[in-house]
Task: structure prediction
Amino acid sequence: MSKAYYITTAIYYVNGQPHLGHAYEKVITDVIARSRRSLGEKVFFLTGLDEHGQKVQQAAQREGKTPQAYCDELAVDWLKFATTLGLTHDDFVRTTQPRHRAVVQAILARLHGEGHFYVGEYVGWYSARAETFLTDKDRRPDGTFDPEYGDVVELRENNYYFKLGVHQQWLIDYIEANPEFIYPDYRRNEILGFLRNNTLEDLCITRPASRLGWGIPVPFDPAYVTYVWFDALTNYLTVPAALGDPGLPGWLRSAAGAGEGAAPGPSLWPADAHVIGKDIVKFHAVYWPIMLKAAGLPLPKRLLVHGWWQKDGQKMSKSTGVIVDPVSVVADWGLDAFRYYVVRELDLGPDGNWTDAGFESRYNAELANGLGNLVNRALSMLKKYRGGVVPARHDELAADAAEAARGVEQAYREYRIQDALVQAWGLVNRANQYVDRTAPFKLAKDPAQAARLDEVLYNLVESCRILAVLLWPVIPASAEKIFAQLGLSGQPSCFAESAWGRLAAGHRVGDPAPLFPRREPAPTGAAPAHPAKR
Ligand code: MSP
Result:
């Protein structure tokens, strides 16, 4: 069976509130997944939740719930969030699922059996809130730790260590030999700089169960649970293994319940892209490749590292009220307006800045006056002047449409999804100018211009059809509305349909309805006084 294009998001801390940063990562991953499907690839899109760790245990305790019950409740909200964002994920992994526990334990057992671990004493400053030991580098100039770490206490304990250090040179060589592994370039250079200038310390991969019960038990020593990052990173293997990916070794598949007798599942591993934020590159570009190499498994092909969003130039934080609530923006402005803005505003890589004014301005200029107006004008004029019947094919905008389609396709293939929109808007603007230049409302008044009016109308409605196909990965609901208004029964979800001339003469279009009504008020990106229930 041919391998599917396998793409993942990070898995989200279950106890955090879904916010703009999470929504962004999920949306861009969904856009990439949809664009690949549209281009004819088989795609498997995975997202999910990171549910273990001290913070979850403590929060559950405070609410008088078991950690599992606490996670189960929050997982409902996160699943709803995925639906709100229109995600087309194929599976949703939770680190508390038995299939995941089994895979983590199988990998731990394998690495232990092959001598990758040893026991050592750890003494250090521990932040329960960050679930991490801190070093002197984390101290502020006055010697204290940032209050965001909460209480920091000195801990001394025995733990299992993973011999990362011995793989350092191999990893440097690997990243140098595979420049596409970390995208964009500057993130690769940061990691290479880090690896070349520091000695990689061995990784502490356990926590005493006495201190932290809420984790996956270490199979060869019940006194310990696994370190959350060892647990979390493994999620990317869990679903392929559980589904019986024939490319994975039998020991892993059978651990996940898809052993010898089971029918082979989809071929997924290695992942084609892990979409992650810039803060978690080290885990994915250093720990994860070494874990995989030690387990004898192929490495993912690419890490797509996106930047972080701020709001009005400030770090988002609930306590200061500087936040963007994606759920209320979607409720107020529509899902596609939100998806469009985040993809159009921020290229995959740099940091971004949300402003309500910027959102509103893009909405009005690019969606309402740009795409929306084009579709509305094209369909209204066809209705008014030709009873909604498509005239004979005419190719005046065919070259512009072909150029846009080529540019958009290339951009999707190369993960330049912001540029895909820029390319598509080349056609939106071209077609709107074409209306102004050809002035069909004047042509309609002159019976001698009837043939010319036919030509203009064909070019306009056909451009709208093609735009629906080009834009479907980013604004699927609007693209589907365009198809419906054009009276087309299929979906705009197949890129090959962007070829010029598919709209047949004699076809009758449906009724136009505004896609993006013009609006004045600012979006409700700021936290509402009474946050809407997700
Ligand atoms: N649970 C870990 C990831 C484990 S992956 C094996 C984690 N979770 S998180 O919920 O804190 O973050 C999830 C993703 O959201 C990360 O990729 C992170 O970079 C991203 N973002 C969190 N805040 C963000 C912004 N303000 N802007 C953009 N993305 C941000 O880390």
Notes: The longest strand covers residues 117-127. The chain has two domains: 5-306, 355-498.
